[in-house]
Write the structure tokens for this entry.
Amino acid sequence: MFSVLIVEDEEWIRRGLIRSIDWERLGLEFGGEADNGARALELLRSRPVDIVLTDMKMPICDGRKMLQYIENMELDCEIIVLSEYSDFEYMRQAIHAHVADYLLKPVDPERLNELLASVADHLREKRSGIEQSDPFSKLCRMTLGGSGPDPGLDLPSGVIISAAIVLERGGNNLLAEIKTLSAGFMFESRVYPLHSLRQAFCIFQLVPEYFTVAESSNCEGVFRKLHTQCMELTGGDVRIGVSGKHNCADARLALAEAIDSAKYLHRGLGTIMYHDRVKSAAVTRELPCTSERQISDFLAHGRKEKIADLCGTFIGPIYDAKYMSVAVIRKALVDYTIMLEQCSSKAGYAVNISSLLGENYMDRIAKIEWPEEARTFLGGVLELVSQAIWVKRSLTTADLIQEIIKLIETHYMDDINLMQISQQYHINYVHLSRSFKEQTGATFTDFLMRVRMKKAEELIERYGRSEKETAPLVGYSNPYYFASSYKKYKNSLKEDRE
């Protein structure tokens, strides 16, 4: 049995990983746990293990330092790195090729067990000496680890084609199913989990430099069967990106082409994307601009039944375009979310969408791979914003005045007035003006001026800015008018002290 050391600073995540691993079925045993890299190294010195499953961001000794020590100690173990999505590309470039594979957080138990099974198979091959006589497998694993082939590696004869399979939904034992289906290729192939994409696998094929018509037809037929079978197994859509043919020394380029091709949708749906065909096709670079008028109208009336229409307006062009990049969809979602926040602020109901979601909305968007995931995200955000605005509209007059005070204290540099606010909150201007003076002891105009002058005083006397520099920073477009107002303010303070 192979032993596994789990290195993760969050105890609840460690417990979850331990519970998720199918130890007996995979032929694995628990080799210990550590909450930082330093503690893990202590354990490894006293009791080496076969597999290290480690986080990267940890106190005392982080994952990168720990991996460097493992390499320097020449420990014979396979390493699986856990990484947040936002840090993934950085980690992929920074981590040494000694790493066996990568897994994104939050960890999917099914993917974790598939990866551990693959690593365990590799260990069995390596320790039985099979891999030494199988340069194709070694080349594939080195490519997945992010490195080129060793100079001393005997490259297999032929050229290489890579394919990336991206699934909308997970499924049971997909790695075994894809391996079985790949046996239908006329040429030698290898299948591995691909963790640079969510719910994805990759295939490497060793093929002759020139295809016959029959051989080309066989390859396309197997890819079509893979596509259909994976859809049936998961109940979701599937994208398959296929690279061009490359020399074995350029296996990394083949994998990169496959991954890039798998990031495109054909009329909003998954299909088989051949790199050469996508490259030469008219690919949609951007979605139509979001309509500010539609969003503003939605915010003004707050009708939730309009959410489906807004989502449909956004999603429609994705299904109209022949080829659409997932990256374009994500960018359009970011633009939409920013505009939604801006329109909310203009309407007097400033919202922070990241706060409403409980996580950075860009991190959430970065995980979106399919149009229906985009629709779900957008519908959820519009629902949250609608609810937040309804709560603000339900404020009592006293609560509303506190909201106005916060607005003045954070937007004193902007052109704000009480009439605009009364219209935004649908409250009588005279009543609001009277209530504001009763609660604060000052009119709205005097209160705003006082806040602006206090900020101006800080900028001028503490930070040494001139009156001309300060004026636009506190909401005055005319520096001469500001200078006069500031002088009156300072004189009134002096009179109050006397």
The domain at 397-497 is CATH 1.10.10.60 (Arc Repressor Mutant, subunit A).
